[in-house]
Amino acid sequence: MKKLLLATALLTFGAGFAAADVVRLGTEGAYPPYNFINDKGEVDGFERKFGDELCKRAALECTWTTNEWDSIIPNLQSGNYDVIIAGMSITPERGEVVDFSQPYIPPASSAYLALSKDADLKSGAVAAQTSTIQAAFVAENGMTVVEYATPEETVAAVKNGEAVAVLADKDYLKPIADESNGELVLLDKEEIIGGGVGMAFRKSDTELRGKMDAAITSMKEDGSLNAMIAEFFGPEANTW
User: How confident is the model at residue 42 (pLDDT cuts 50, 70, 90)?
Assistant: First the structure.
């Protein structure tokens, strides 16, 4: 899934979650169906439902907050929240500065969205969100990458001709293509990038990570996680 954030801050926040009465879950709120803000101004989507269920099973009281993607790891380390649950792919680079849970979504396809099926990915820039695994992939594979702060801006870049295509999670791009009335299409070419999606924790918060891992395991074992993935991503989505 998305996102190769290379954290610039290497701070360790000493007071772990055990010192707090409430576990604060941090997400982006801008990447449906993983997470988004609904009409009531509340965090919604797959990760909201999934995170609430994890907290229930772990007997934790949890709250939600949002943070812009490009500073989401530094603000975890600074103590602004206790967990990142934001469609974050597990990567070795991130693992140097945070600890991950086991993956809760298997590795999934990234797709290209363009104005036509015959778009030439070498003829111009390919858009990607800043600090994502897709941005790194484009740069490492002979294409010209142009990065934008938000996923919405990457799609806008294709529409206005700043990019020939955008590379992002297929789960994010497919609904956009479906709702565009043919203006935007998915290319047949897809990429498998990253090691699945996990929750990120400060390295000092081993107890909290253990509680969440146990809850994820229980959801995998009873089938409820697969059902939730199918609910939000469709019956053809990769499951456990």
Answer: very high
Superfamily of domain 109-192: Periplasmic binding protein-like II (3.40.190.10)
Sorted by where each begins, the domain ranges of the chain are 17-106+195-233, 109-192
Q: Is the Cα torsion angle 155, 157, 160, 161 positive or negative in sign?
A: negative
**Both structure tokens of 23:** 């576990």
Sheet holding 125-129, edge to edge: 144-148, 125-129, 165-169, 109-114, 185-192
**Residue 28 to residue 217: CA distance in whole angstroms:** 24
Per-residue pLDDT tens digits for 43-66: 999 999 999 999 999 999 999 999
* Superfamily of domain 17-106+195-233 in the CATH hierarchy: Periplasmic binding protein-like II (3.40.190.10)
Please determine whether the domains at 17-106+195-233 and 109-192 fall in the same fold group of CATH.
Answer: yes
Is residue 52 classed exposed, middle or buried when 0-12, 13-18 and 19+ CB atoms within 10 A define those classes? middle
Alpha carbon distance 8, 218 (integer Å): 34
Strands 99-100 and 200-201, how do they pair? antiparallel
Could you tell me which of 182, 186, 197 has the C-alpha nearest to residue 232? 197
